[in-house]
């Protein structure tokens, strides 16, 4: 049956990227980096972090450092899956795909006449699109930009929720 096939299947998690190259010694070297995902566990109403994979229409996460024994794979809501951006907000909290952020402009965006920050408190969600983590741009000629570029331009972000638990924050 389907459940026993799941428990007996040997799988490689989607959360591993492998990169190889040949250095001057002409020996093949393999380097890996982990891509961490999160997902909501409906039965526990909390989040779990680790390596993500799909089995049919079911989604699972394997926690880092835990053996890859299928019985220890945790089923999550497939609609809640979000990949880590590997970027942290101004409080040190890791930002994930699906997070809702509040953006604040840099010191350069302070209007001395009105004594107001030009882009204080704008809200955006993080989406993965065209190979990049995208957020709404507070100004400029584009509607959206890569989150890394926005941070380089002086915008700071704070995670204030996510689209799964707090969809009303981003209307």
Task: Summarize the structure in words.
This protein is mainly beta. Helix content is 8%, strand content 45%. It contains 2 helices and 16 strands. It has helices at 2-8, 147-152, and strands at 16-21, 29-34, 37-41, 46-55, 58-62, 74-76, 82-88, 94-96, 99-104, 110-111, 116-117, 122-125, 127-129, 132-136, 144-146, 156-162. The strands form 5 sheets. The protein has a 6-stranded antiparallel beta sheet, with no helix packed on it. A 3-stranded antiparallel beta sheet has the order 12-9-16, with no helix packed on it. A hairpin with a 4-residue loop joins strand 3 (37-41) and strand 4 (46-55). The longest helix has 7 residues, at 2-8. The radius of gyration is 20 Å and the shape is elongated. The model is unreliable at 1-23 (pLDDT under 50).
- CA-based shape: elongated
- The mean pLDDT is 78
Structural class: mainly beta
The rounded distance between the terminal residues' Cα atoms is: 43 Å
Number of helices: 2
Strand order of the largest sheet: 6-5-4-3-7-8
Question: What percentage of residues falls in helices of 4 or more residues?
Answer: under 10%
- Poorly predicted regions are 1-23
Order of helices and strands: HEEEEEEEEEEEEEEEHE
Q: Tell me the fraction of residues in β-strands, as a range.
A: over 45%
The radius of gyration over CA amounts to 20 Å
Biggest β-sheet description: 6 strands, antiparallel
């Amino acid at each position: 049956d389907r459940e026993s096939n799941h428990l007996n299947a040997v799988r490689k998690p989607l959360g591993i990227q492998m990169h190889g190259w040949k250095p001057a010694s002409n020996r093949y070297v393999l380097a890996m980096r982990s891509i961490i995902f999160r997902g909501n566990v409906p039965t526990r109403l909390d989040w779990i972090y680790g390596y993500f994979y799909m089995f049919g229409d079911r989604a699972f996460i394997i926690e880092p450092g835990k053996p890859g024994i299928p019985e220890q794979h945790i089923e999550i809501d497939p609609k809640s899956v979000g990949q880590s951006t590997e970027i942290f907000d101004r409080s040190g909290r890791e930002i994930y795909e699906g997070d809702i952020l509040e953006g604040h402009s840099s010191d350069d965006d302070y209007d001395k006449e009105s004594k107001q920050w030009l882009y204080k408190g704008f809200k955006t969600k993080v989406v993965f699109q065209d190979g990049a983590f995208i957020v709404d741009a507070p100004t400029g000629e584009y509607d959206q930009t890569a989150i890394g570029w926005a941070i380089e331009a002086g915008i700071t972000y704070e995670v204030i929720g996510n689209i799964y638990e707090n969809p009303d924050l981003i209307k």
